[in-house]
Amino acid sequence: MILHNCAFRLLLIFSIFLGYCFSVNPVSNEYNCLVNLVENFNLLKFTKDNSTGGYINICSTTDIVCYGNYISKLVLNGGGSENILSPSNFSDCFPMMTELVVNNLKVSPDFIYYKYSNTQTIRYSNITGIVGGITQPLPPYRVIQIFSNDFKDTTFRMEFINKQTYSLDFQNGPYLYLNSDGANLDRASILANFNIYAHNLVDLSNYKSFSTVQLLFSSTFNYSTTPHIKTITTNQLIIYDDINPGTIDIDQFLFDDTRINYFSLASKLKSPSQYIDMASFKNHTYSTFSLYPGPLFHINGSIPLIPPKNLQLSFFSGNLTVFPNNLQLSQYVTTNFQNSIKTSQFPKFLGSGGSYDFRGSSYTGTIDESWCTTEIAISPGNLTGEIPSCYACYFNVTSIKSYSKLTAKSMAQRFYGNNFSNYNIKSCTTFRPRVELINDGVFNKVMVTGNDIGFDVSLWMINSTIQLNSTTYVINENGKNYTATMVGDSVNLKDVEYFSVLFTIPNNVLYTFPSNYNIPPILKSVLVKSSGNQIQVSGTHFSSYLEFTSQQIQIVNVGNCSTITSSDFFGAQCTMEGGKLLSTSNSTVPLYIITIDKDSFNVKAYIKIEANFNNDQVCPNDCSTSVGVNSICDLSSGTCKCLPGFFGNDCLGIECKAPGCFGNSYCNTTIGQCVCNSSSQGSNCSLPFIQCPIYNTLPCNGGSNTCNNQTGVCNCGPSNQGDDCSLPVIECDPSDCNSNGVCDRIKGQCICKEYVWAGPTCLIPYHYITSVIPSTTKGGVASFIGFFGDIHNNLSITIGNLPCLILHNSSSIINCTAPAGVGNKIVIVIQNNITYSYDKYQYINLNNQTCPNKCSNQGTCNTTIGQCKCNNGFNGVDCSGVINTGGVNGGGGSNSDGDKGGNGNPTTDTGVDPGSGNTTITNQEINFQIFFKSLYEIDINGNIVESYSLQNSWTSNSTSGENETVYTLSQTIRNNCTIVSKIEEITNRNGKEFTFADTTFNLQYGSIKFSIGIYNYKYKNNLNTLKLELVSSVDQSISDNNECNKKETSLDTINNLDGESTFNYIKISKNNKILEGRFINKLISDGKATYLLTSMKPESKDSISIS
What we know:
Layout: H1 2-20, H2 28-40, E1 47-48, E2 55-56, E3 64-67, E4 70-77, E5 84-85, E6 99-103, E7 106-107, E8 121-125, E9 143-147, E10 155-157, E11 167-169, E12 177-179, E13 193-198, E14 212-217, E15 233-241, E16 259-267, E17 276-277, E18 288-292, E19 305-306, E20 312-315, E21 334-336, E22 355-357, E23 364-365, E24 375-377, E25 382-383, H3 389-392, E26 432-437, E27 445-451, E28 460-462, E29 466-467, E30 474-477, E31 481-485, E32 498-503, E33 509-514, E34 522-528, E35 534-540, E36 551-555, E37 559-560, E38 563-568, E39 571-575, E40 592-598, E41 601-607, E42 614-615, E43 631-634, E44 639-642, E45 646-647, E46 653-654, E47 666-668, E48 673-675, E49 680-681, E50 687-688, E51 694-695, E52 698-699, E53 706-708, E54 713-715, E55 720-721, E56 727-728, E57 741-744, E58 749-752, E59 757-758, E60 764-765, E61 768-773, E62 780-787, E63 796-799, E64 802-803, E65 805-809, E66 813-818, E67 824-831, E68 834-842, E69 859-862, E70 867-870, E71 874-875, E72 881-882, E73 908-912, E74 919-923, E75 926-938, E76 944-949, E77 955-960, ...
């Protein structure tokens, strides 16, 4: 076996030797080609054998690399030849050449465009003979490095770059004009590295494979092209613009909308007029920004940049006189100000950030501890005093493993070259760690907090062997709080009570920590020392006194053991306050209680005080302290002293708190609760238990449904309903029925608000008519005004059961062609499967309107307006009234009192009661009364849904003029609805003409006109209507013996139901006194005239109700 191993190794070594040390010259063909090149072009660095005249050691030169017997890399260094190198010089030569380097030679114009078969890399430096620069596509080399002064100020068209070229480097210039027209339109180029000296920038958005772009700007660079920086997608962009005169704004280079990871800019920038807030950039990808800005780039000595929180910023060789100590940066980034800060005083730290490099400037003063939340490098300088312990404690660490990118990895090196007094720190007394196990179900993470815990989590070892990952840890607060993961796939601290951590640096100390900080100290023994004033307590979960928890030991009624001489996780030793000696236990006081307070925990035990006596007897089940404070353990005897409410040798039994468990129930001493039988419940089983309905063998169908066992009623969950919760809830869509109805969750159907909304989702409104413009009796266009919505499925209208052809319809009006007809008709409008009827359609009779009672044959009928012109001696709407012959009134007059009885007629008095709204007309002993009694809201079925009494609620105002007296009454009912009534007495002897609702009429002298307006009434349903009730009555105030005054009251009505007149009439007669009334069968609704229906009925033998 040994011989075989040796043979194998020797064979391996021999094979390697054969592969790389075969010869110093190539094969003869390549040798001859090379000799021709050397001699024709005076190439340097080739050695000639004077004895043979040949060249030797070719493959061992620094410019030739051979593979086998063939040249793989060829470097041609011109020595001053005027001969022109062309592709023909390589004909049938160097078939295995992968790299060609040509320096300082004249070449033919086609030389740079030629592709050598296996060559992947070409490097042409200081070549001449390239007339007019690059004028045609370059060959498909992977790497091209080229320099020729012949390119100076020519235009380089990027479309000449072959798509297989990975790297293109215009080494050392000269400066070119760039043109990207037509370049890489298919975006197939693999160009990753691009280095060029440029007079301008162009659109490079078609190149998506850039890794590094390096641009060197000329002194005549066209800065108007710098916005093309936004078209560059690259990992690194490096711009050198340091030959400009210092008049360039940083805005020429720094843009929000960029796709650049690392950006390095060297440019002499002028001072900006305002701070550049990079933190406000929203669409950039900057992660690192390195800036060499020159001496002018500052604002009054301050850094003029507001960097984003996560930006790695380097500000080199600047001229800042205001120390940048207030930047708000991430704890994971490094910020570099080398050779940029010109102020000498080193201030306090007011900002945030992972690490800062302040080297290259000489500072004075001291380092404040405020810097302990970041890593710093600050050498050399003239700083004095002590280095803060957060740094000095770690001078023994040669390489800090943190997220910092400071080049000085040794903590000590970061501070060398100053005049600090504590370079040689011996021990770290300020180190105070606290470790908490993260309970995330995996238990492989810890959170380390404390004072002077450093910046390197790899210095801590869990249980002395388990490392923490220094590449994935989380910085909660740099230098003070970290979360780190243990190294190892299966490593965790699950199910451990406590664990230790070895802090190798600064003090190489081992501390123990609990896995759960919510556990009180576990006391196992108490030893009274022989001195009589010292106590040693032992157990677990005590305080290590690292300033994170407070701990106090006391003996009840004796004193505090306040001087802690030593303490750790497993116990503590203390001395009684003031050195007080403990009294020995005796028959009077056999035991004392010792208490240990740790944070919010309080632990007690009985002990016997006797010198060198160790109270270490174990109590049964620790007296159940794991489930609560049930008792106190007597450590001197190992017995439990139960607290009230507990019993048993370990005090685990719990007495039931309820006063007795009623009936057949019993006390469960494990939980201290009564266990009731099947018919009772409650804390003491005194309440009855009623079973709820069972479905599928489960009360209330189980699931999320609950049963109230005191009432036996199910409380169903959101998806069930019914007495036993067995019915599913079927939600409507939408569930709220668009707020226009309620959902029947048994059927899953919307029940819409009646007569308001319809449709499956309650989005179709009920339509209604508010006013009508009717046709004539011959038919024609009729207009219906109201609300008809925006949906008109299957719209149809009938008038008196005859169809009305639709001409136009919208949400507010419908026009149709009405059939011929007379009188009042019912209109039916049907759409969206909703039927609406309207009973106030009155045909317009333009031909012959009839007069009431044909004017009683005592007058002439005006058939145009349907009013009588009475003959002399007669009056009234139907000329049935006989004028007192003793008077002097002309024909058609009235029995008024305008002449104060001078014509022989009795005087008529008119009065209005402003409170009740009653209008009284008195002639001798006869009193006629007229008043508005009530207002009703009527639903579509004719039912009264709201009623308002109009009597005794009026306020009044009256005005009088030469020709009229007007009483205005008003009152307010529900929701600011105003009702205004006007009562006008005609005092002009010639009468007065009125127009209302497109109807013109005359009132005679002595007449009284009533009108009423109802404003802002809010219907309970849009389909409802209003009904107004007016009462007219007559009575006799006194009796006399005149036979003419003993006639009964006569009530007569003329109701115009056939539409042959514009008016309806009433006539009330008593004792030859006649009160006549006309009612216009129109009203104005929402500003439009429409017809109304009037009904009249006697209320008594002396009164009539009109509505």
